[in-house]
């Protein structure tokens, strides 16, 4: 980038679910630091017209030449596409910010949440910065603020993950299941929901491991060793890396729930010192990207249906854990497509540009 000129931003996967949200975020900003915003997608999407900042942009096909003149390239594509093309973008002179899982645990690639470890954007030996998994990211602004003040030592998390975490296929399946059981007396005994789905002609193949309508499924991600899932291990490994606590004790149980968008987490966090609830509230209130919604008398607490489409992390149900010293329990909600994917990736780019 020439001195005095504004940087060029590229969005790779601009026509996908996360890329679309990212364009919406950019359009909603009061101002942006970019001289040019280039939209890149697969050849089948090339030529499509998308309005960005009031101007009509034409989507260009993914190719090495598409990165010429690009300063920062945001990747919202599957792992295998990022693994192949992010290094190519770097070779052409761009910094790659990747939202896939391709580089998250690479020791030479920083895993960044700007509220927590923004300085790491400048430590990128491979020219690539990774965006965390949406489940980890949903709690990280809140947890990072507490860690900065009190020193996190142990973390037990139960996640309640929306169907959109399984992609558009997951959303479509949930809507189809809800339609299949609507108005029917199901759920009285174990097989009723499954029977209703079969009777409605829904295919047996599903992104979930059991019916999701009128149900919760204690499994998200792929199977790993010793009964763990990939989502649960991501929470463990990514929390350690983002917070810079390689010895952090973490245990996670990831559950899929019949919510379209917005992940929720019940967090049980142990610190190096006592954390009074009022002090924790003050920490949350001081964090610009956290909204405190915690009033038991008025039944005020965050829920995914109320948080969807919002950019901040919402926190409530804050309690000192009974029988566990130096430990807080609290509930977190964050839009998994917005802050959990598109927004954090874009905020990394803003940090670089700033």
From TrEMBL:
SMART domains: Semialdhyde_dh. Phosphate binds at residue 104. The keyword Oxidoreductase applies. The active site is at 134 (acyl-thioester intermediate), 263 (proton acceptor). NADP(+) binds at residues 15-18, 44-45, 164-165, 336. Residues 8-124 form the Semialdehyde dehydrogenase NAD-binding domain. Pathway: Amino-acid biosynthesis; L-lysine biosynthesis via DAP pathway; (S)-tetrahydrodipicolinate from L-aspartate: step 2/4; Amino-acid biosynthesis; L-methionine biosynthesis via de novo pathway; L-homoserine from L-aspartate: step 2/3; Amino-acid biosynthesis; L-threonine biosynthesis; L-threonine from L-aspartate: step 2/5. It is an enzyme of class 1 (oxidoreductase). It comes from the Bacteria. Substrate binds at residues 161, 256. One of its GO terms (molecular function) is aspartate-semialdehyde dehydrogenase activity. Keywords: Amino-acid biosynthesis, Diaminopimelate biosynthesis, Lysine biosynthesis, Methionine biosynthesis, NADP, Oxidoreductase, Threonine biosynthesis. The keyword NADP applies. Its EC number is 1.2.1.11. It catalyses: L-aspartate 4-semialdehyde + phosphate + NADP(+) = 4-phospho-L-aspartate + NADPH + H(+). Transmembrane segments: none annotated. InterPro entries: Asp_semialdehyde_DH, Asp_semialdehyde_DH_beta, NAD(P)-bd_dom_sf, Semialdehyde_DH_NAD-bd, Semialdhyde_DH_dimer_dom. Pfam families: Semialdhyde_dh, Semialdhyde_dhC. Belongs to the aspartate-semialdehyde dehydrogenase family. Catalyzes the NADPH-dependent formation of L-aspartate-semialdehyde (L-ASA) by the reductive dephosphorylation of L-aspartyl-4-phosphate. Homodimer. This is Aspartate-semialdehyde dehydrogenase.
């Amino acid at each position: 980038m020439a001195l005095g000129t504004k940087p060029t931003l590229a969005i790779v996967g601009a026509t996908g679910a996360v890329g679309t949200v990212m364009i919406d975020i950019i359009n909603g900003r009061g101002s942006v630091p970019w001289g040019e915003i280039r939209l890149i997608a697969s050849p089948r999407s090339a030529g499509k017209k998308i309005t960005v900042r009031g101007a009509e942009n034409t989507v260009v096909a993914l190719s090495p030449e598409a990165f010429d003149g690009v300063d920062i390239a945001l990747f919202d594509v599957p792992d295998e596409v990022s693994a192949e093309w992010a290094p190519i973008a770097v070779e052409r002179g761009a910094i790659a910010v990747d939202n896939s899982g391709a580089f998250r645990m690479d020791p030479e690639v920083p895993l960044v949440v700007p509220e927590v470890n923004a300085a790491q954007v400048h430590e990128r030996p491979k020219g690539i910065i990774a965006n965390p998994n949406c489940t980890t990211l949903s709690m990280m602004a809140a947890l990072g603020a507490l860690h900065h003040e009190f020193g996190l030592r142990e973390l037990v998390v139960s996640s309640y993950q929306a169907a959109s975490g399984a992609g558009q296929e997951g959303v479509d399946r949930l809507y189809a299941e809800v339609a299949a059981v609507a108005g029917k007396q199901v759920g009285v005994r174990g097989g009723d929901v499954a029977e209703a789905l079969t009777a409605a002609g829904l295919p047996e193949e599903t992104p979930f491991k059991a019916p999701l309508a009128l149900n919760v499924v204690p499994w998200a991600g792929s199977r790993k060793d010793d009964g763990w899932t990939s989502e649960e291990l991501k929470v463990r490994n990514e929390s350690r890396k983002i917070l810079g606590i390689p010895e952090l004790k973490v245990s996670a149980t990831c559950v899929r729930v019949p919510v379209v968008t917005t992940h929720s987490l019940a967090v049980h966090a142990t610190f190096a010192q006592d954390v009074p609830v009022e002090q924790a509230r003050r920490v949350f209130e001081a964090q610009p990207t956290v909204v405190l919604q915690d009033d038991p008398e008025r039944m005020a607490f965050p829920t995914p249906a109320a948080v969807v489409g919002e950019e901040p992390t919402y926190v409530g149900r804050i309690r000192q854990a009974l029988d566990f010293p130096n430990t807080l329990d609290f509930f977190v909600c964050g839009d998994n497509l917005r802050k959990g994917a598109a927004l954090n990736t874009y905020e990394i780019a803003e940090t670089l540009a700033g």
